[in-house]
Design goal:
globular; 5-stranded antiparallel sheet; alpha+beta; 707 residues; 8-stranded antiparallel sheet; 19 strands; single chain
């Protein structure tokens, strides 16, 4: 029995009344807001009742209707007149009221997830928050003197109190659900459903489109052998990640799986594989709310409206102050200490990314909440603290991960006609692209290991690397390298094959910051689903000193907007970030497939980083694991694992890590040269005009020569 049943029933009853009474009970300018938002809440409550009483026997068309109605308010065609849209809310309610009440409307949408997971406590606190704000408006309207509405600061206070009071409970619930073995509703759907009956997709409560339906249908047509190949590559990569890093997988009991809905047939096989290793699997939901430590990882459906998520990603700016910033850090620490033994047996995440949705370049404007410089520092401090607490709780040096990617049906639109192939049918294009990605995910890693060792043998002799762009690419960058004390036993670069980062294909290192300088430029790149045009970063002593992009060319204040876009989504509110990684991608098969089918712009970072030299800003690849001994297949120990920041990890942990790592890749067609330079000035060309020229690596050009 739900212990707060009476409170829940009273809140539900009151919300249902508001939709009928708000007009005349609150100030005229706010009446429409409360009528419509009470209606949305009523819809979510009705959905909970449907799930408890009728859903099991409902036919597919009923499930589809329910799914559409739940997300109808924020779909692109309706978002322009939704109070969840801060631009619309500001136009109707004024900036202060509009931003705050839009923030509330967005937070209330998390009831959908909680309704589907039968988490009524989480539903209740959000329902009561709405009722608290509504009561503030009704009381103000009843006053004979004074304003007919509460002040914006009073509304802000209610939202502030909500985050302050429930931060520990909510973060504890989310952390434990993410990492500790427990009863898992999503895992039950994956393992127990009839996957040929597509109604199962709607039981998650995520927004479902033809991408998810088409993926599930296509996987149903694949032979068991191919499903096994997909899942086995995924889970074996996870296992090998422990082996090559010398970590003890046997001491771990739990793996979290993150994936895009539609791939359940593969995920079911993956769960079985992990169970055969003696591991329990958790499948958490990705959820964005005011309590999220950061946009939370987990399973996802379709993005109903990416602009909506973008509009609200900085909502906390409306209430964040020093006290609340510290309160959130304290709550997070308490959450990680609730079940310490559960976190210790967590092995890490197994992530299956999906790609192929239409590119997204967000709109920005004054209606969106923005962090002040002081709040930026608070936000950056929280990310750093979150990263440190996570690594301490799960003992970061003893856990691992793996990531693999597959395309969604929407990508077939890009592959219908390119200069290299002509396919008339989107479904046929999707199947060909899917199979091409399957092949690049399962390339012979022995071949790449051998070629990459040839690269590393040359790079180990180098003092620095020089990168130069071709054509309109403005890259002119020198990267200083670690100096080996014993080249017979040590290596600068890691020979990366198909384990934690699938597919195969890169060698990477942590650069020496002092002496790393110049300009990194790419004409276009997608980072975490956001597009950057003409992205330029300038480095001095390994740290970003200047930056720009062309996303807002022709708009008023285009330079300032571009800088803010980078500050929010690459620098993550840090004043600067160091170059944490320098790498040379070798997967020319992935590069060729991207060009052949016109899908290179859709590639996630995981694949894109293998299609050319790339550089990460933020933490190094060895963040929190610098003291673990790591060896290449030739037996040499990789010793370039830290930099001037991570070297502070014992004395000043808060200054050692940044809690972010973003890879930026220069594609081969924009690359003039990559040259290894020794201390005495001897130059050895690795890549020239987009082709590998180092003896022993030219085999990589075979895929490039097909273009």
């Amino acid at each position: 029995m739900f212990e707060n049943e009476e409170r829940y029933q009273l809140a539900e009853e009151r919300i249902r009344e508001i939709a009928e009474e708000a007009r005349g009970s609150v100030a005229d300018f706010a009446a429409d807001y409360f009528v419509r938002e009470a209606g949305e809440l009523t819809l979510f409550l009705d959905e909970y009742n449907f799930l408890q009483k009728e859903a099991a026997d409902a036919p597919l068309n009923v499930w589809q209707k329910h799914n559409h109605v739940l997300y109808e308010d924020i779909l692109p065609e309706n978002y322009g007149h939704s109070y969840v849209n801060p631009e619309y809310a500001v136009s109707k309610l004024g900036k202060e009221y509009g931003q705050l009440l839009s923030m509330l409307a967005y937070e209330l949408r998390s009831l959908i997830a909680f309704a589907y997971e039968d988490r009524r406590e989480q539903m209740l606190i959000r329902m009561e928050l709405f009722l608290q704000v509504y009561a503030m408006f009704t009381m103000a309207a009843q006053e004979e003197e004074g304003p007919d509405a509460p002040s914006a600061s009073d509304i802000r206070g209610a939202l502030y109190g909500y985050v302050r009071d429930y931060a520990e409970d909510e973060m504890t619930a989310d952390r434990i659900r993410m990492l500790a073995p427990q009863e898992d509703p999503a895992a039950a759907i994956v393992m127990d459903s009839d996957l040929s009956d597509l109604r199962y997709l709607y039981r998650f409560g995520e927004y479902i489109t033809e991408n998810e339906l088409g993926t599930a249908r296509y996987l149903q047509t694949l032979p068991d052998e191919q499903i096994s190949r997909m899942a086995d590559t995924f889970t074996e990569g996870f296992r090998i990640g422990f082996v090559v890093s010398g970590k003890d997988l046997d001491s771990k009991r739990c793996v979290s799986i993150e994936y895009h809905l539609g791939f359940e047939r593969m995920i079911r096989r993956a769960v079985s594989n992990f169970e055969a290793m003696g591991k329990e699997c958790i499948i958490p939901r990705a959820l964005q709310s005011l309590f999220s430590i950061q946009p939370q990882r987990g399973y996802t459906g379709a993005a109903a409206n990416r602009q909506c998520s973008f509009d609200h990603k900085n909502d906390l700016a409306l209430i964040l102050d020093e006290f609340l910033a510290n309160r959130r850090i304290e709550a997070m620490r308490a959450a990680y200490r609730k079940e310490p033994e559960g976190f210790k047996v967590y092995a890490g995440p197994a992530v299956m990314e999906a790609f192929g949705e239409k590119p997204f370049s967000p709109r920005t404007g004054s209606w969106q909440p923005k962090f002040s410089p002081a709040q930026n520092e608070m936000s950056a401090r929280f990310r750093q603290a979150a990263s440190g607490e996570y690594n301490e709780a799960v003992i970061g040096r003893n856990r691992s991960f793996t990531i693999i990617s597959f395309p969604l049906p929407e990508i077939g639109e890009a592959g219908i006609h390119t200069p290299y192939v002509t396919i008339s049918d989107q479904a046929e294009a999707y199947h060909k692209i899917f199979n091409a990605v399957m092949e690049l995910n399962t390339l012979d890693y022995h071949k790449y290991q051998r070629i990459q060792q040839t690269l590393i043998d040359t790079l180990n002799l180098a003092d620095r690397l020089y990168f130069k762009g071709a054509g309109s690419n403005k890259t002119d960058l020198t990267v200083n390298l670690y100096k080996l004390s014993d080249p017979s036993k040590q290596a600068i670069f890691e020979n990366c094959v198909a384990d934690v980062n699938i597919p195969v294909g890169e060698v990477f290192t942590s650069p020496v910051l002092k002496g790393t300088e110049g300009v990194l430029h790419v004409s276009g790149v997608y980072l975490e689903g956001l597009y950057f045009r003409d992205l330029t970063l300038t480095f001095d002593d390994g740290c970003v000193t200047d930056y720009s992009c062309g996303n807002f060319a022709g708009e008023e204040h285009e330079i300032a907007k571009g800088r803010a876009y980078i500050e929010d989504n690459i620098l993550f509110h840090h004043k600067t970030l160091p170059m944490g990684e320098c790498a040379i991608g070798t997967n020319t098969t992935a590069y060729a497939a991207g060009r052949k089918y016109g899908i290179a712009g859709f590639y996630p970072i995981l694949i894109a980083e293998k299609t050319g030299p790339h550089f990460a800003v933020g933490d190094t690849c060895y963040s929190h694991e610098e003291d673990n001994a790591v060896f290449n297949p030739d037996g040499k120990e990789i010793v370039a694992k830290e930099n001037d920041f991570s070297r502070l990890r014992e004395k000043d942990p808060s200054g050692a890590y940044f809690g972010c790592h973003t890879d930026i890749t220069i594609p081969f067609e924009e690359l003039g040269e990559v040259t290894a330079i020794t201390k005495d000035g001897k130059r050895t060309e690795i890549i020239q005009n987009g082709r590998f020229v180092l003896p022993g690596t030219q085999e990589l050009n075979t895929a490039l020569d097909t273009l």
